[in-house]
Each structure stands twice: as C-alpha cells, then as structure tokens.
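Before surveying the methods themselves, let us examine one representative protein, written as a sequence plus integers encoding its fold.
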Amino acid sequence: MGPVLAGFLQLLALIGALALAYVPLGNYMARVYSSDKHWRVEKWIYKGIGANPDTEMRWPAYLRGVLAFSAVSVLFLYLLQRIQGILPGSLGLSSVNPAQSFNTAVSFVTNTNWQSYYGEQTMGHVVQTAGLAVQNFVSAAVGIAVAVALVRGFARSRTGELGNFWSDLVRGTIRILVPGAAIAAIVLVACGAIQNFSGIHEVGQFMGGSQQWNGGAVASQEAIKEFGTNGGGYFNANSAHPFENPTPFTNLFEIFLILLIPFALTRTFGVMVGSVKQGYAILATMATIWVGFVALMMWTEFAHHGAALQAAGGAYEGKEVRFGVG
C-alpha cells in the first residue's frame, strides 16, 4: 500500500469516526447544558464554592464568573510551581522560577498551553497532575461554557440571560470531560502510552551515552490534553513523543479526540437553538475548510523529496543523491 493510499484511508477512517460520534455526543452535550437536574457530586461542589447553580446570569455576571475563576486558577497554579521543591513527588526538582511559573500558569489557564521548558526535567508529579492536568480539564470546561453561553444568546433572543457559569463549568467537567478523558486514557494505556509515578531512571541512547528520564501520569494527561483541545504535553513535544503517542493508531486516535468536541458542538448548537439545519450549515463550513487544508498538507507531505524517493521504490539505491538550491 502506497503512502498516498494509506493517508487517504486514514482520513476516511477519521471522518467516519467523527460522523458516528457527531449526533450522540452533540445531543448529549445539549442535554447536559439544558438539564434542570444536578448530580449529587455537583451539589457538593456547588456547596463547597458557595454557588447557586439555578441563578440565571446576564453577560456581565457570567463574565465576572469566568474572570474570577481564571484569576484564582492562575494564582493556584503559580503557587503550586513556586513551592514544588517542598512537595512530595517532586523527584528532587527545585521550585520553578517566578517568570516561568507565571508564564506557565497564565498559558494553561487560558487554554493556550505554551511551554518553554522540558516538562520531565522541570515539573514533578504533583505539579503535572494536580496543576497542569487539572487546568487541562477546567480551562477546556471554561471554553465550552463560554461557547454554550453564546449559543444561549442566539436561542434566547428576547432575554439577556445566558445561564449560570458555575453550573456550566461543573457540568462540563463532571459530565463530559472526566468520563471522556477516562475512556481515552484507558485506550492510550492499552496501546502503549505510559501511566505511572516512577522516579528518575538512567537510560541509554541509540547513538551512545545515556540520559535521565522519569515516568509520570502521561496517558491521563495526554487524554485530556487532546479531548479538551489543549496543547503542550507531559514532555513538551505536542504528542510527537513516543511515550505520549506510541503507535500509528494512537496518532489517529489522538487526532480524533482533538476534533471530537468542536465538531459535536455544531450539533449542540443546532439542538439548543431549535434548528439542527443551522448546526449542519456550520459543520459543513468547518468541514470544508478542514478537509481543504488536510488535503493541502497531505499533498505537501507526499511531494517532499523523502516521499518521492520512497515512492521511487529504490530507483536511487546505490547512487549519490544531492538536494540543493542550485
């Protein structure tokens, strides 16, 4: 099977999987954000943070909720990094410097996930799991909540009420992101992604020598990183690291996870505004742009010199091949 055919079949498999999940997930998210009932664990959370989930908010109150929660999240993640040196499971790593701590905290809280450090050499187990992984959940939940508030703005044209931010945040986390990420993590572990709390090991390199490496709760963080459309990663390699993405199947699966919620949200939009045709119209626009750029990227990849040599079937074997600008 040639690389072009293999790439085309992978694209078809990805589109087919998204099509199968589109209606059930989109309808489920619409029910989540439209229900009047609260789960018991959700009631405990509301009581703990002192929020009334049944109070409707206009846009200024909703915005204040988003900003207040984000500010507290930045402070918590910043302090967690600053005290890393005295935390259990720090793997002997020192506290992160103030500038790096602030940059990372703001980045993860805003769902930007910019990383300018080597994750396994900078962050211990507690900061990775209780800090970065948690923000991968709640920052994604905040993003979905804002999108749902916008949908309510279209659906409730005669009122200025956009729902309740705290209810949307908790429901998105508990009912959508946690179960989805848990299933995805099990799949990734089954396919070879690592999931442990091991210490630092000395491992050999292919070209000789050795380097230090530590394990971690990689599969669980990778799952929510993709499902919540976050970035970065445990090893700061954006899923290009073999411990995060060990096989061709996991690569396709992780791409599926990235696209799942954004695609399904168009169905959620259609259901919540009472016109699924509008949801299909938005989906068609998104899909057209996406497929167009995927086709362009696949063409440029297969047109590369390396792909051309592979397609030649060894025609250049034993010959000196030079690539230059002249």
Summary: The first strand starts at residue 200 and ends at 204. The CA atoms of residues 116 and 279 lie 38 Å apart. The radius of gyration is 23 Å.
